[in-house]
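Why should sequence recovery work at all? Because a backbone constrains its sequence more than one might expect. Tight turns favour small or flexible residues, buried strands favour hydrophobic ones, and helices have their own preferences. The token representation captures these environments compactly. In the example below, the structure is given first.
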């Protein structure tokens, strides 16, 4: 028999900025019930109100309508994204504060397991130290309901593993917002989905969420078609693109696995960085960064020891390891920002890099989206191609109507997405990403995966996001803190597998990074005449549509066109949108046929 909820919100409605964020006259109000042992994932795009819902649950915010009920004695604790340590001299002072101050010995016990010195001054603490202190404070309070907002941000892999183990043993309920797919799949048992002002619940963990989401969108599309609601479909262009994007990314994963297999053949049996190619001269001509025997020592401790690596054009390199293991040091040496103590790093003269790091405050206060992207104009130069700023916004999952919105009022995740849009527009052949997944929602992560896969240059990624690394990198550099750097063809799981069972003898091709759970593929079946024809002709049609889009964008690059002939400008814009829609549908259709052919 199901136990009664420890907390409920019934008929919840909330207005923000003159509009209904939840509920209201045009949509259903929200009903929320949390049981004593619930393990809930809270899913939704940036800006839909996930963090706001947290504040309503723990009574920090009043709703405009609805009734909140809570079982007497229920202790709610929030693990926020950015804890405010103002007024606390040390991390321990911070940990002993809050509504339910914990016992110091409880804090010390958890802090010891997390490897954090709680006597450290708050003012100089790093993001990882602040996050560990906050975790120690939250868990030591023995909550009945734990609300976690991006709990894995700023944590290294060892700390994430410890937190997952603690939560598996935890006897209370939790509700978590996270972009970390691996974390969500391992821990959640039910999913709350915030979408366009309403909330759906399904008793499946995050592992089943994407299939559920696609099913909902497909049902909505069929209903809209029956009602001939063309305008409604156009209003939800983003939702319609979700399924197609994920299917395209599955195709990109196949290409990634092929690249990993090629890289595996270049790595010697010990998994070191002595890379081999059919001809050494060919390998050298493709190299963009060559590290030879580099080492670095700080305060008598060797961070990197005798490391060599040739990075080729098009490589996607992931760097993983615990905090303090030397990830940033290695990254800075490979990009020429830091000189090694010994050894050399040669960087191709033609290499021009773009760095996207954890500091998302570079957008400028008081500026609009248009000013950030296009310096106040209507056009943006995207790696040599002139694009209308509103069309470019759509490529990064923004409503084009936000073009004149102030950046200050965007959510943290939206600001991160805007920064990505700006930086990806710059001409470059080296992309350096330092913890790029922080503050991004799951659909933006799908987009980022797509952009990285299509990027023609070389990519260096420092990240703790295990699923993201498995989906993007061809080679993983694993640091264990001793100075040694493992070089593994593949992603995070391939590195873990190597650490558990070192390979002896001939190097094996890496295993495929596990894609999202899906039912077993159907057996290959015979195509009808129409299906066979589509399978053979659609690739050519897709190329034609890509060419048409490029030609249209080239015409729109004329800054005087809109003034001279606004009707032609509008017609070309409409033609580009139609071509993009047809191209997405063609790609989805061809991928579905390819799955049947390849079985």
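From this structural description, the recovered sequence reads:
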């Amino acid at each position: 028999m199901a136990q009664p909820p420890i907390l409920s919100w019934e008929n919840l409605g909330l207005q923000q900025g003159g509009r209904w964020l939840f509920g209201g006259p045009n949509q259903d109000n929200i009903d929320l019930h949390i049981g004593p042992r619930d393990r809930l994932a809270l899913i939704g795009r940036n800006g839909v109100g996930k963090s706001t819902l947290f504040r309503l649950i723990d009574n920090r915010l009043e709703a405009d309508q609805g009734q909140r009920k809570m079982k007497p004695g229920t202790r709610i604790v929030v693990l926020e994204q950015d804890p405010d340590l103002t007024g606390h001299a040390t991390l321990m002072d911070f940990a002993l504060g809050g509504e339910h101050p914990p016992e110091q010995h409880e804090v010390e016990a958890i802090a010891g397991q997390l490897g954090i010195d709680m006597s450290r001054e708050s003012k100089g603490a790093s993001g990882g130290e602040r996050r560990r202190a906050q975790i120690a404070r939250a868990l030591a309070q023995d909550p009945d309901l734990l609300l976690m907002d991006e709990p894995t941000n700023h944590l290294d892999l060892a700390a994430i593993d410890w937190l997952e183990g603690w939560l598996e043993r935890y006897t209370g309920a939790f509700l978590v917002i996270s972009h970390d797919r691996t974390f969500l799949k391992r821990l959640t048992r039910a999913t709350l989905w915030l979408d366009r002002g309403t909330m759906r619940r399904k008793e499946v963990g995050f592992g089943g969420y994407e299939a559920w989401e696609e099913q909902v969108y497909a049902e909505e599309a069929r209903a809209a078609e029956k009602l001939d609601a063309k305008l409604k479909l156009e209003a939800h262009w983003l939702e319609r693109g979700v399924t197609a994007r994920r299917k395209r990314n599955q195709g990109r994963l196949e290409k990634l696995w092929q690249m990993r297999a090629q890289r595996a053949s270049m790595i010697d049996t010990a998994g070191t960085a002595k890379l081999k190619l059919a001809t050494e001269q060919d390998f050298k001509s493709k190299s963009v960064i060559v590290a030879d025997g580099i080492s670095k020592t700080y305060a008598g401790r060797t961070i990197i020891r005798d490391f060599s690596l040739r990075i080729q054009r098009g490589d996607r390199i992931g760097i993983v390891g615990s905090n303090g293991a030397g990830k940033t040091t290695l990254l800075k040496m490979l990009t020429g920002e830091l000189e090694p103590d010994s050894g050399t790093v040669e960087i191709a003269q033609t290499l021009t890099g773009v760095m996207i790091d954890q500091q998302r405050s570079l957008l400028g206060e008081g500026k609009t989206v248009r000013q950030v992207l296009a310096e106040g104009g209507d056009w943006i130069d995207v790696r040599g191609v002139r694009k209308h700023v509103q069309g470019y916004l759509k490529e990064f999952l923004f409503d084009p109507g936000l073009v004149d919105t102030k950046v200050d009022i965007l959510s943290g995740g939206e600001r991160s997405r805007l920064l990505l849009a700006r930086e990806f527009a710059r001409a470059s052949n080296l992309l350096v990403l330092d913890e790029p997944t922080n503050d991004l929602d799951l659909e933006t992560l799908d987009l980022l995966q797509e952009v990285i896969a299509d990027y023609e240059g070389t990519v260096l990624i420092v990240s703790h996001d295990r699923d993201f690394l498995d989906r993007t990198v061809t080679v993983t550099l694993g640091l264990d803190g001793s100075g040694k750097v493992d070089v593994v063809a593949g992603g995070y799981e391939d590195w873990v597998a190597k650490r558990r069972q070192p390979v002896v003898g001939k190097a094996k091709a890496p295993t495929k990074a596990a894609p999202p759970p899906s039912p077993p593929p159907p057996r290959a079946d015979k195509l009808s005449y129409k299906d066979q024809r589509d399978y053979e002709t659609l690739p050519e049609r897709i190329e034609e549509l890509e060419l048409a889009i490029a030609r249209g964008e080239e015409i729109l690059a004329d800054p005087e066109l809109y003034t001279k002939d606004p009707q032609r400008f509008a017609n070309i814009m409409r033609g580009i949108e139609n071509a993009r829609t047809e191209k997405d549908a063609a790609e989805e259709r061809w991928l579905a046929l390819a799955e049947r052919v390849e079985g």
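A few observations help interpret the result. The first strand starts at residue 7 and ends at 16.
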